[in-house]
Design a protein that fits this description.
With 493 residues, this protein is of the alpha/beta class. The protein is built from 12 helices and 21 strands. It binds zinc ion.
């Protein structure tokens, strides 16, 4: 009988978000709660549990799973508490388990720790020793570091963007772990590419980046490699090893692993110019939309909480107000103080509040006279993969053509959950502000007349040169001119 330990810790940050992540932002499950929350969902942990459940000679134990919506870098206190709780949850199992699966993200970051996932792997290794098989999984936006590869035996990463294969990634990680337990000797080759990328060509179904992913998937399916992935990093996580990169893991065949990683990265580098965003100026977007029949989507990726922004931009709203926009508008804004005012007057009450810019001083608060339509405790279910979401006390408020969903906390907005969870069908509005770089087409694009990818300011702007990177290794495309790519293979085994 093999006994596997499952634990996880995950967040994606934007170094350019001025609001630090505090411990309270994390939703944490301990021991059996991890099973209860994940079972039957499409998370990576659920996928791993499914594989372990299907093996008669495998049992698993869960200790700790922490996840937070994307935000600014963790404060020192946050990381100290979180990292201590994480490692303490593992201590009772030293000598009790035969393998470890860690569900990670790869784009975490703290004021005092620039490689939290590397720390997790290093400390887990230190606790359980050199012979313990450890496999981890990452988001496709993860920044896989040398430290993670030094202390982990293997890794899997999402093969889809937008992400729809979390469950599969967990399943692949679990299968890889069981292969290592059964005697596979993983050798990891990785090649880093000095490029950070953004935009439609990264959509794995339709964009050029999908070519690299499809190759990896076919090599995995054919059994030629144990695992492989192409990580594009999160361009907003300004850490030393920020880059795009391929990793290939074979069972002892270093030559194949090297060759495949080199091929994939050479192809990717060729496409770097294509993999940047085409943004439409704010004024132009609003002007064009005002004469459209609708529905119209204003994509505000510069304030995408799922990428690490605070969600309190009002820059598109301000332009709509300025131009006396003639159509109905649905938009989310993080603004705890405005929510409190709504709570104070209650449903049906009216109040005046200046919304937006409460967290990010880049935005100037914008005053509205609101009527409160609905108040909630902020608990709802994520449309994408069924996980519980929490936006803090939340208010639906109306002012003229504007219907705003005011949340106390930033929440991921890559689907319609916040709207649907508060009785609002976006299809009933002419214009919808969507604070996410990309969504699955069925959520908005399939039924909208047009989607404007708006060039608005914000801490997750696809206008990458506007952000002010100061930590990642340079030169890197597109921040620097004349960047060249001289591939180096790093081997870990
Ligand atoms: Zn991601």
């Amino acid at each position: 009988m093999h006994r596997v330990l499952i634990a996880g810790i995950a967040q994606e940050i934007s170094s350019f978000n001025p609001v630090p992540t505090e411990y309270e932002l994390f939703s944490i499950q301990r021991d059996e709660e991890v099973v209860e929350v994940n079972k039957g969902t499409s998370t990576a942990i659920a996928g791993a549990m499914k594989v372990f459940d299907s093996e008669a000679d495998v049992q698993f134990v869960t200790t700790f799973a922490a996840k937070a919506v994307s935000a600014g870098p963790m404060s020192a206190e946050c990381w100290n508490t979180l990292s201590t709780e994480f490692i303490d949850s593992l201590r009772p199992y030293v000598g009790e388990v035969d393998a470890i699966y860690l569900a990670l993200h790869g784009a975490m970051g703290g004021k005092t720790e620039l490689d939290p996932e590397g720390w997790v792997l290093e400390q887990t290794r230190a606790l359980f020793g050199d012979d313990m098989p450890i496999v981890f999984s990452l988001d496709l936006h993860g920044i896989l570091t040398a430290k993670m590869l030094q202390y982990g035996n293997g890794v899997t990463s999402y093969h889809t963007y937008p992400h729809v294969d979390l469950h599969d990634t967990g399943m692949r990680a679990a299968s890889l772990l069981l292969k290592i337990v059964a005697g596979a000797k993983p050798v990891v080759a990785r090649v880093r590419v000095p490029a950070i990328v953004r935009g439609d060509e990264l959509k794995t179904d339709t964009g050029c980046f999908g070519d690299q992913i499809r190759k990896i998937k076919s090599l995995e399916a054919g059994g030629e490699i144990l695992s492989g992935g192409f990580l594009i990093g999160n361009p907003f996580t300004d850490v030393p090893e920020l880059c795009s990169q391929a990793f290939i893991i074979t069972d002892g065949n270093q030559g194949d692993a090297e060759r495949i990683a080199l091929e994939l990265t050479a192809e990717f580098w060729e496409n770097r110019e294509k993999m940047q965003s085409n943004l439409v100026p704010l004024e132009e977007s609003v002007e064009k939309a005002s004469s459209m029949a609708g529905p119209v989507i204003f994509t505000d990726a510069a304030d995408a909480p799922s990428s690490g922004s605070p969600g309190d931009s009002n820059s598109i709203l301000a332009e709509l107000v300025r131009t006396n926009y003639p159509h109905t508008v649905l938009a989310p804004v993080t603004d705890a103080a405005a929510v409190q005012k709504a709570v104070a007057v209650g449903v049906g009450g009216t109040f005046t509040a200046a919304v937006g810019g409460a967290l990010d001083p880049r935005f100037t608060p914008l005053e509205f006279e609101f009527e409160v339509k609905l108040l909630s405790d902020g608990n709802y279910i994520l449309e994408s993969w069924g996980a519980p979401q929490f936006s803090g006390i939340t208010a639906v408020v109306i002012s003229g053509v504007f219907t705003l969903v005011l949340t106390s906390l930033p929440v991921s907005l890559f689907d319609r959950s916040l709207f649907l969870g508060h009785g609002l069908d976006p299809k009933n509005f002419h214009s919808i502000v969507v604070k996410s770089p990309h969504c699955q087409p069925r959520f908005f694009d399939d039924w909208a007349e047009h989607n404007f990818n708006v060039d608005a300011p914000g801490s997750t702007s696809a206008n990458l040169r506007s952000l002010g990177h100061s930590i990642c290794s340079r030169p890197i495309f597109p921040l620097d001119p004349d960047v060249s790519f001289e591939p180096t293979v790093e081997i870990f085994n």
